[in-house]
Structure formats: C-alpha cells, structure tokens
Specification:
Radius of gyration: 18 Å
Oligomer: single chain
Number of strands: 7
Largest sheet: 5 strands, parallel
Number of helices: 8
Structural class: alpha/beta
CATH architecture: 3-Layer(aba) Sandwich
CATH superfamily: Flavodoxin domain
Order of helices and strands: EHEHHHEHEEEHEHH
Helix content: 25-40%
Number of domains: 1
CATH topology: Rossmann fold
Length: 213
C-alpha cells in the first residue's frame, strides 16, 4: 500500500504540516507496511502552467497533437496520484482558500481527456476513487458558531478532486491557529484526529484498483 503525502505550507513547523504528519502516523498504525511518497509543494514548488501546456490543453485539436514535453510534468503528477492507495494533504488556508502552490498542483492534475471527461452535464472523473485525508490549518475561524470568515477551501477541494474521481474525502480543520499556544495546538490536533474514519483504509486497495470510468 502506498500513501501520497503532500504538504503546502511554507513554514517548516506549521500547524498543517504537523497535522498531516499526525494523519500519516495514524494511518501507519493501521497499515504499518505502507510506503510513503512525498510531494512537498512549498520546498519544491511546481511551476505555474507554462505556455506549451496551456496551448496543448486549449482545444481538442491541440490536445490530440500535444507539443513535445508539454504534458510531461502533468503526467508525472497524475501517475503519483494513480500509484497511491491513499492521499494525505496538509494545507494552510490562505486568504480564505487554497495556497497558490496547491493550486499549481491542481492545475497540472486536472487534465481533460486524462483525469476527467467533459460532458454536457459537466466533468466526469476518470481516476479511481481512493481515500483523501486533508488537514487544514487556519489563522481564523471558518466553521461552527464562532466562524468569522467564509470558507472557499473545503468546497473548492471537494469539487475539483471530485471532478477527477476522488470523492472519499475527509477534512480535519485546526482553526484560530494565530491564537493557540503549543499545548492548545496539540489538543486541537488531537481533537481533529479523533474524527478520522479509518474504516476507509480497508477499502483503499479495492477502490484504487477498480476499473476506470
């Protein structure tokens, strides 16, 4: 079994990094022989979409005859997802949504004719479903009765990942991190992890090897 572990925070000891690492540790207690594939989007950021890539994707005709090398990075990232039985993402909430480094990854992974099909009813995912565990750290509060800001991150990730076939998502928020001391942050992390549903782990290999749509 393979776990793809993605981090996005530019801070080495950020709350989202600590949360995603804790999620991975909890998964390893269930599947101790799992291998870890690492993708750190902050320390090794992906380039934003290049002209050759966007030109190739611009029409069905250009997609049918892609420019040489234009899809290489996209293909490598998609294959990382396909090779994973489970995905763990640690991300901060930047200005109410995902950070730009995660958006750059999304723009390479969402690819017409490869990870989704365009239909009259909208995008239809072409990848097999697998569990995705997403740890989110926010300096403010975006859920519950004390929410003081809107949340464009969780609905966005649910939609874009669902559009390629990844529908088994679990979100684990740590909020008001700007006001937490170390002990409070540890308690918040433990509280977030208490909500994890590990029953999907047993289903992961079957989900990841099902036939494509």
């Amino acid at each position: 079994m393979n776990i793809l572990h993605i981090d996005c925070s530019p801070r080495p000891e950020s709350h989202s990094r600590q949360l995603s690492a804790a999620i991975v540790r909890k998964l390893l207690r269930v599947v101790p022989d799992a291998s870890i594939s690492r993708r750190d989007l902050a320390t090794a950021p992906l380039p934003h979409a290049a002209p050759d890539y966007t030109t190739t994707l611009s029409t069905p005709a250009t997609l049918a005859t892609p420019l040489r090398g234009a899809l290489d990075l996209s293909e490598a990232l998609i294959r990382e997802v396909e090779a994973a039985d489970m995905i763990v993402i640690g991300t901060p909430m930047h200005n109410l949504t995902v950070p730009s480094v995660l958006k750059a990854w999304i723009d390479q992974v969402l690819r017409a004719g490869r990870t989704f099909m365009s239909t009259p009813a909208g995008k239809v995912g072409m990848l097999c479903d697998r569990p995705v565990f997403i740890g989110v750290a926010s300096g403010g509060v975006f859920t519950g009765e004390r929410a003081t800001q809107p949340d464009f991150l969780t609905p966005y990730l649910s939609t874009v990942l669902g559009s390629i076939g990844l529908n088994t998502l679990q979100f684990f928020p740590i909020q008001a991190t700007a006001f937490l001391d170390q002990d409070q942050a540890t308690l918040a992390r433990e509280k977030a992890l208490a909500a994890i549903d590990l029953t999907v782990v047993a289903r992961a290999p079957r989900l990841a090897t099902d036939e494509r749509i």
